[in-house]
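Handout, page 2. Input:
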Amino acid sequence: MARLSWSNPSVRSAAYQAMAVAAVAAVAWFLVSNTLANLAARNIASGFGFLGREAGFAIGESPIAYEPQDTYGRALLVGLLNTLRVAAVGIVLATVLGTLMGIARLSRNWPVARLAAAYVELMRNTPLLLQLFLWYALITETLPPARQAIQLLPGIFVSNRGIKLPLPADSLGFDLAGLGLLLAAALSLLLAHLARRKRHSGGQARPLGWTSAGLLVGLPLAGWLAGGAPTAFDVPRLQGFGFVGGTTLTPEYTALLFGLVIYTGAFIAEVVRAGIQSVDRGQWEAAESLGLPRRAVLRQVVLPQALRVIIPPLTSQYLNLTKNSSLAVAIGYPDIVSIANTTLNQTGQAIEGVLIIMAVYLAISLTISVLINFYNRRMAFVERQ
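Output:
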């Protein structure tokens, strides 16, 4: 039995930890009690009961139905969905851009490598907020008004009011096509997982490129045909001083998304470049000695090994992109920070508003970390017994 003496290192360690916990608890109790006392002295209500009251303000863009008569809770939900919308799309596009730029920096083509390096250095060394102001000004100041909109393709118009896109009409066929696409993506991931397990066990897996392509094309097409093969689209058309119909990528959303993708893509490019360079040069030489072209060596030999180095720092870049989306308030995009600021200004519930913002970003960051860490564990080297 351990001797209860101060000279015992275990006893001292437990005592120091208990004192540290007590000190933190005392500070927390002081801050909370002092805050509640000050709020009561100023007749300021506390709590989250305001979430059920009428908001009374409009929101510029919302992925769900919202009216000023709705509650503050629904307004904050709109802000959350707007944040998730820009973060999810931004992560995908920044990953693609960063991967391409990281590979381009290692290209043997001198102009390609130098241009990629110039992009990385320029974007990494200028503030993101300044870049957002630049993209927003370019969209709103240099593009023509709606009546003189530039038609890029049939049904696609660009103006200082954003990008107008055609939208599939509400029909069963398009719904089934969307479900087919999701099912095809899930099956492709499952087949890739089974093929990877077979390779790790010493077997030879069949190439899945054509199989995945067939699923991604065939299942949505089958759903579309099963739903009656609809062809109707809600195409935007000019009416009065603006467009009606279709869907709109607003200048605020477009500038924020473009800025986040361009900025974060530069950091991801350096992560990808470092990961590729971490692979021993002998791997390149051994693969090229077998007659594989350089592109195949990169795709089949180098990148699978580099992923184990790339994924951990890539997680940080995804988290940075998500948290940097809070700068949307500077250009008027109604994300969770913007709507929470409006809410706390109207209700005076500043502490609750800040807590809601913190909880949202904490939940999103933890979710991203869990998903990427799970994938990282699947990609990690497993020592054979």
